[in-house]
Amino acid sequence: NGSGIDIIDTKTFVKKSYTETDGLQSLQENTIYEYNNQIIISTPNGNYVFDENSKNKFTRDNKYNCFPPDYQISKATVVLEDVFFQGTYSGENMAKVDEISSLIFKNNRFKEDKKFLRRIKDVNAKHFHLSDSMVYISTNEGLFCYNLTFHAEPKPFKTIINSIFTKKDTIRFGVTEHSKENYQFNYSENELRFFLASTNYSDKNHLQFSYYLEGKDTTYSNWTKNNIIIINNLNEGHYILHAKSKDVLGYEGEEILFSFTILPPWYRTSLAYLSYFILLILLIWQIVKLYTKRLRDQNIKLESTITERTKTIVEQKVELEHKNKEILDSINYAQRIQKALLASNHLLNENLKDYFIFFKPKDIVSGDFYWGTKASNHHFILATADSTGHGVPGAIMSMLNISCLHEAIEGQKLIHTSDILNYTRSKIIKHLLNDGSEQGGKDGMDCSLIAFDFDNKKIIYSAANNPIWIVRTGELIELKPDKMPIGKHDKDHESFTQHQFDLVKNDMIYTLTDGMPDQFGGPKGKKFMYKQLKELLVSMSQLPMNEQKTILDAEFNNWKGNLEQVDDVLIIGIRI
What is the reported pLDDT for 222? Predict the structure, then answer.
């Protein structure tokens, strides 16, 4: 009635109702039966077992299912040790024919065993009834009687080929034995039709056939009632057709073989290939003859040209080497100038005492730089910066950036880190306003600027995109920067933020650019990343400065391996 399943206790006559919330997949088309002391419900999704003590009372147990979930088992009835049922496909397989079948329990699971039920075709069972040794099956096509005591021994039968047709003619009738003769077909007749039959005449309308063509196929085709095999567009070669038949009870007949050869077309015969070869030889001989004379004439001219070109190349090589030397000399000189603008060892030793600088430019000169000076309030100011670009363009940009920082502190006597960065930004934008680009002045730098107040053990800092990390007693404290560069930007009207941070003895301060985190390498060619760099710095923060620098250098080279360095690298460590 579409309301689910009702189970009545025969002792108390109490009724319990079960629906989809108890695990039923459908409220309709359910049949209850008992097998091996197990209550089973046949449903539109197969067999479900009933367990009153579980949360889901009805579950689909693979032990009782040998069909896919879209196979509906209905009208299930226990017949001795078998279960007769009506099978119906749904979903994507809905077009498959309905069938009456049976299940048998072997090796601790249900298996399909149709037996003589194979002979009942294209009907829908309404009811199964067992009486003595007879099973009465009522269907939409009438009543069928199944005698359980009847046993029929399979009789051997053969697969035969009734007739064979080519594209143009009939070549053979009644092939009942393996073909000993090898038939040959011209390539123009390359379309063969084989009409199969069987010596089994029981339910001949339900005979099925399968074949495979040795020389083309690797396995037999699926079973089908179609007894016509059409083979066309074969390449030349030898083939053997294997064909077999199967009756309604599933017994297979003796296989039949038919051997044949497809001859090559005239243009792929041995004589044709010999003709092609002779023509090719004649053509090559003629071409060689024509080109030999031309080559002799060209060789004389070529030797003269090679002599002149060799002389020119040697002269150009000498000139190129000279220009390369001039360029390298200029870049090396630029390196000395840039190094002179960086914070000197004397200045750093005088103000920082215990520190290291890990500086690894990508090229000879660098866009990354470190610069320091004493402010008018006697605070030591240190800048760690990453200019736009690297190599020569980056180095030129770094000189402009250092000049603007110097003017802000030495010329304008600014002491607040936020004011210094604001003034530096305005000067950079002004200098680059007429750089030739459409928007003008988009270059600049990322920078962390720290003012050390050693008397009060604190730092005053402002930062543009570059963070400042402090490792204290094994933990990393991140001083986050403003998310904007020192240069033209959407936020270039906003002031940089100034912060201060109290220090304690043995604090490790790290300032850095993005060169090492962005370096590709490792086993998978990925970036080093900030997370890995943080873990490395924390792990070595208690070591002496020279050992920390050595570890950074080794870790960077090991990670990079044979890959190219992608950017300038700068990391400064300072112990308080």
Answer: 92
Q: Are 255 and 243 in contact (CB under 8 A)?
A: yes
411 close to 378: Cβ distance less than 8 angstroms: no
Within a 10 A sphere around the Cβ of 526, how many other Cβ atoms?
11
Digit-coded pLDDT (tens) for 16-46? 888 888 877 777 778 888 888 888 888 888 8
For residues 241 and 260, what is the distance between their CA atoms, to the nearest angstrom? 8
Q: What is the phi/psi pair of residue 435, to 5°? A: -80, 0
Confidence of residue 318 (pLDDT cuts 50, 70, 90): confident
Residue pair 214/172 in contact by the 8 Å Cβ criterion? no
- Cα within 13 Å of Cα(201), Cβ side: 1
Structure tokens belonging to residue 79:
């017949």
Whole-angstrom Cα distance, residue 321 to residue 313?
12
Output the CA–CA distances (angstroms, integers) from residue 522 to 39, 537, 556, in the order listed: 61, 18, 10
Spatial neighbors of 484 by CB under 8 A, at least 6 apart, are 464, 465, 490, 491, 492, 494, 496
The structure tokens 């208690």 sit at 542
Are 545 and 475 contacting, i.e. CB atoms less than 8 angstroms apart?
no
Are 460 and 453 contacting, i.e. CB atoms less than 8 angstroms apart?
yes
Type of residue at 70 = D
160-169, 418-427, 468-477: least confident range: 160-169
**β-bridge partners, 383:** 371, 449
Task: Return the closest-CA partner of residue 548 out of 471, 454, 460.
Answer: 471
The contacts of residue 119 (CB under 8 Å, 6+ apart) are: 203, 206, 248, 249
Place of tokens 């209850």: 32
Neighbours of 108 (CB within 10 A): 6
Residue type, 423: Y
Dig out the tokens for 92 from the structure.
């994507």
Question: What's the whole-number mean pLDDT along residues 390-411?
Answer: 90
Whole-model pTM: value is: 0.48
CA distance 559 to 569: 13
Amino acid 173: pLDDT: 65
* pLDDT beyond 70 at 70: yes
**How do beta strands 58-59 and 508-512 pair?**
unpaired
More confident residue, 297 or 91: 297
Q: In the numeric block, which tokens belong to residue 115? A: 């037996």
